[in-house]
Design a protein that fits this description.
- It is built from nine helices and twelve strands.
- By secondary structure, it is an alpha/beta fold.
- It folds into two domains: 66 residues, CRISPR-associated endonuclease Cas1, N-terminal domain (Ribosomal Protein L15, Chain: K, domain 2), CATH 3.100.10; 237 residues, Four Helix Bundle (Hemerythrin (Met), subunit A), CATH 1.20.120.920.
- Helix 3 runs antiparallel to helix 4, helix 3 runs parallel beside helix 5 and helix 6 crosses helix 7.
- It starts with a strand and ends in a 13-residue tail after the last helix.
C-alpha cells in the first residue's frame, strides 16, 4: 500500500505549485519538497506569507485532498473541499427538523457523556503509569475521574424538554466535570507549568499547544461532517451564532481528550516542550505539535469490535450521526480505551 501523507506548511515565503502530477514546494527557485498528489491526504497551511496556485487547488479537489488554513495559534481560517463531497438534501432536512425533537436532547446528552467519560479515561490512563511510582498522584487522579463519571447520573433524559430548555443543565454538568479534569491535569504536570484551562487568546505554553491541536481536530471533524452530508453550522449542544459551526464543536467534544489531550500531555510529561515567541508557539515547533496530533489520528482504537484509526472513527461517527438524525438507529459517543 502506498504511503499517504499529511503535508504541513508553516514557513513564510513558500510557494506551492503543480509540477505534472506532483505538488511542488518551493522557496524562490529552490525546490524543497515534491509529493505525488495521489499520495497526499491533507494539506495544512499555517500562518501567513504562504501562497499556492489554482492548479494545486484543482488537483487537490480532484484527488479528494482537503486543504486547511490555520492561524499561527491553530485557529481555523478556512477549508477547501470538493463540492462533490456534500451529502443528500434529505440528511440536512432531517438534521434541521431534529432540533425540535427529543433527538436533539439525546444527541446533546451523548456529547456530554462522551466528553466526560473520555476526559475521565485520560486521567486514568496517566494514573495507571504512576500506580507504583507515585501512589498519591495515582489516587488523586483516579478519584477525580470517578467523581467526574458520577456527575453523568444527573444527565437529563430525552423527554426532559426542548433542547433550548435543557442546554443549561447539560453545560453545567460538562463544566463541573471539566473543572475536575483540568485540576487533575494541573496535578499531573510539573508544578507551575499549567495554571488552568484557557481558550482563545491563551499565551502560555500548555494552553497554546492544546488550542493548536484542537484547531487540527476541528478541521478533521468539519471534513467528516461534510462528507456525511451534515450542515456544520446546525448543532445542538452549542448555541447557533453567525459564523459558528456549532455541529463541528458538538462532534469534536468526544474526541478532544483522546485525540489532542493525550498526545500533548504525553509530550509534556516526558519533558518535551515548545518554545514560545510573543505568546505563540515558535514557527520551528508548530510542526512538532501538529505532527503529534496528526500521528494520533493514525493511531488505532477499538470501534464496534474492530480496530480503526481515529480519523476513520471520526468519519464513522459523523455517518452514524447522520443516520441517527434520519431516524435510523441510535447515537453513542466513542469512548476511548485507557
Amino acid at each position: 500500500m502506498e504511503h499517504i501523507e499529511d503535508l504541513i506548511i508553516t514557513d513564510r515565503g513558500v510557494f506551492l505549485g503543480r509540477r505534472s502530477q506532483r505538488l511542488q514546494v518551493r522557496r524562490a527557485q529552490d525546490v524543497l519538497q515534491q509529493i505525488p498528489f495521489f499520495k497526499l491526504r491533507r494539506l495544512v497551511i499555517v500562518g501567513r506569507g504562504i501562497s499556492l496556485s489554482s492548479d494545486v487547488i484543482e488537483k487537490c479537489v480532484e484527488h479528494g485532498v482537503q486543504i486547511d488554513f490555520l492561524q499561527w495559534n491553530g485557529q481555523p481560517i478556512a477549508k477547501v473541499t470538493s463540492p462533490q463531497l456534500t451529502g443528500t438534501v434529505a440528511t440536512r432536512r432531517a438534521q434541521l427538523k431534529a432540533y425540535d425533537s427529543p433527538m436533539a436532547v439525546a444527541f446533546a446528552a451523548a456529547v456530554v457523556r462522551g466528553k466526560v467519560r473520555n476526559q475521565a479515561n485520560t486521567l486514568k490512563y496517566f494514573a495507571k503509569a504512576r500506580r507504583q511510582t507515585d501512589r498519591r498522584l495515582y489516587d488523586a487522579l483516579y478519584a477525580r475521574s470517578e467523581e467526574m463519571v458520577a456527575l453523568l447520573d444527573t444527565l437529563p433524559t430525552n423527554d426532559a424538554g426542548h433542547i433550548d430548555e435543557v442546554r443549561s443543565t447539560l453545560l453545567n454538568i460538562e463544566g463541573r466535570a471539566g473543572a475536575l479534569y483540568w485540576a487533575g491535569v494541573q496535578e499531573l504536570l510539573p508544578e507551575g507549568m499549567f495554571g488552568g484551562r484557557e481558550h482563545r487568546g491563551a499565551t502560555d505554553m500548555v494552553n497554546s499547544m492544546l488550542n493548536y491541536g484542537y484547531g487540527i481536530l476541528y478541521t478533521q471533524v468539519w471534513g467528516a461532517l461534510t462528507i456525511a452530508g451534515l450542515d456544520p453550522f446546525a448543532g445542538f449542544l452549542h448555541v447557533d451564532r453567525p459564523g459558528k459551526p456549532s455541529l463541528v464543536l458538538d462532534l469534536m467534544e468526544e474526541f478532544r481528550s483522546p485525540v489532542v489531550d493525550r498526545p500533548i500531555l504525553g509530550m509534556l510529561t516526558r519533558g518535551t516542550t515548545v518554545r514560545m515567541h510573543g505568546g505563540l508557539i515558535s514557527p520551528e515547533d508548530r510542526g512538532k505539535v501538529a505532527r503529534r496530533v496528526l500521528d494520533r489520528l493514525d493511531d488505532a482504537d477499538y470501534y464496534q469490535g474492530k480496530q480503526h484509526k481515529y480519523r476513520t472513527i471520526i468519519q464513522q461517527q459523523a455517518r452514524r450521526l447522520a443516520s441517527f438524525l434520519r431516524g435510523e438507529g441510535n447515537y453513542d459517543a466513542h469512548i476511548a480505551r485507557w
